[in-house]
UniProtKB/TrEMBL annotation:
Organism encoding this protein: Robinsoniella peoriensis
Entry protein name: Thermophilic metalloprotease (M29)
Superkingdom field: Bacteria
GO biological process, one term: proteolysis
Keywords from the named record: Hydrolase, Metal-binding, Metalloprotease, Protease
GO molecular function: aminopeptidase activity; metal ion binding; metallopeptidase activity
Amino acid sequence: MEISGPENKIPDLKGINGVKEDVMDLEEAKIYQERYDLSMERIAQIAAEETVAAPFIDYFQKMASFIMEIKVLFEKLCSGELNAYSCEQWEELNHSLYEDILPEHYDNSYGNPEYAVSKLGEIHGRILSFLYTELRGMIAFAFEGRMWDMVIICEVFIEIYNCFEEEELPVYKKIQQILYWFISDYSDRTVTRRIQESVDPNLDFAVQLIMNEDLSDLRYLYKFGEYITENERKTAEYLNYLDQKTIDLMASTYTEGYRIGFEKAKIDLSSKETVNIRYNLGFERMIRKAIQNFEKMGLRPVIYRSAVNSINKRQQLRIGYYGAIPNKQFDYDHRADNTIYLDKPFVERKLGVLRTAYEKYKDLANRHAGPACVEIFGEQPFIPENKPAAYHMSEKQEKLTVFYNNESSQITNRYIKGEERSFTIIAFPIPEIGEQFEEIFREVIKLNTLDYHLYERIQQTIIDALDQGSCVHIVGKGDNHTDLTVQLHELKDPAVQTNFENCVADVNIPVGEVFTSPKLAGTSGVLQVKEVYLNELKYVDLSITFEDGMIKEYTCGNFEKAEENKRYILENVLYHHESLPMGEFAIGTNTTAYAMARKYKISDKLPILIAEKMGPHFAVGDTCYSWSEDIAVHNPDGKEIIAKDNEVSLLRKEDIGKAYLGCHTDITIPYDELQLIEAVKNDGTKTEIIRDGKFVLEGTQELNEALGEFTVKS
């Protein structure tokens, strides 16, 4: 927060690394300073007084003590005192900020809605657990010097506390309305700030740390304000150990993939000025080099933290940069907290703010090129627990969520046009993957830099065979009961047209796959996977039935009750849509990745980015060409890819609100669960691509060699 004027009593934020807040005039700054001081004075009293009844006194005193802890943190950040901390002191401070929600303490944390309800009752426990979660956002606000954000959450905490000081306990509706109007009224600041973060390179808190800190001194990790574990420390240590040539290779593979994505799509990158870098802490040495590479392309980095307040979150997903996730169950428990305030007037209010915000930053948005993502893998698989005490959306709210996601996507696309942006994604392991971390890391670097010319040639052979078919038949093996027919679009001129894109290492790293947007009519059957991880959630015996390309039925074996399994999929795969189309069918060709996964026994830890290259996969939701269907795309052989639409996306020509779903989830069948993939011609003749998990099409057998290179380690 930069303050204009010669004299003020605002904390000097110069001690906070990388802070560059919105400029306030002196009068506004004084007002917020006064509000901050008054709030902190009152909350200090709350931490010690006993004016509310049991059992609520324990909750409010603990929350007040946490806020006082943040106040001290903020003062130390402003004074620069923390710069003298040793690594051990930083680690102790970092742990103290997050320890209450760590798994070993979560059973007795008010952040756990189950515990909160057991202690505070059904009426108040759940909603006060939500308030607890919002208060935790103050950690990030303190590190970024965002006093205004701290002030408003402290004021609403005091307002709710005052309700409990009254003679009678407040009814649920009273607390709900306070929070409803708090979130709604301030959305013009909180949502607008989030849009600014997504396009404005001058909000460079993270960039300043990445570019200016001594990365050999691991204390820098703690200055982001995120939770830091051995994963982040050891990742940073390992990257510091690597020679510059290797770092350059990692960074250039990532940034060149981004550049080539624009080149292949014939999008003018020179008209863009910013790129959004998303990554996990620990990879700063690579990211620093990537920033330098992007700057040579004329792109400045936009790097924002994953959202910490409910209004800007999307379920438990984290979008932006972040450190370790302290407790995935905590995130999952609070995935539907917006149930508290989600109604039609709020949705209309938020959409209005979104439009105004994009209009305010339209020039920055127009010059934004899109995201460049670095994913991680190797964490222990997470199987969530469904807690009745957590908030769950009503059917009406589910429909409102679908409506909001659809409308907000349209607004975003008006300012950051789909046909003018691109992306890239690359992934690396983290130390939690096991003792062979360094060996696996080196293998992944090789994987990310495989000879794409080889894959391009072999994949073209597969495409040539598939293009002769009218549909593709996929059959599972053993306990996998997949039996699915995918209908293909008709090629009016096969000499110059194709259904499949020959995908090598550009936007999706590593190589390789061939993919298409299926014709929905005639695409029917059962897709089953014994075990799969989608957006960091595990699914057991996932089964989806398609009828004319649309999901008709779905279930899994995660929970004892069938309705819990259906809701799990509805929330986390269908994203509350009643049904979704099959937006993509692909055949992954990266047998090297598959062999690596088997060699190190890490199949259950690979991200979908790599896993989707290890067998056929099917995406439910939008096509791969959403918002850019009318841009001509050609394969290296010169043929134009004509299968970019399906019957749902074509609705954009009549009602754009019905054409896009705002989601795209890939589900892969591994080679060892695959009996057959064959192209079926109109006359009924068939051409086998894969049989019994091996490529059998003439000209593709070279892919099988990788499967013999590695033996499974015991």
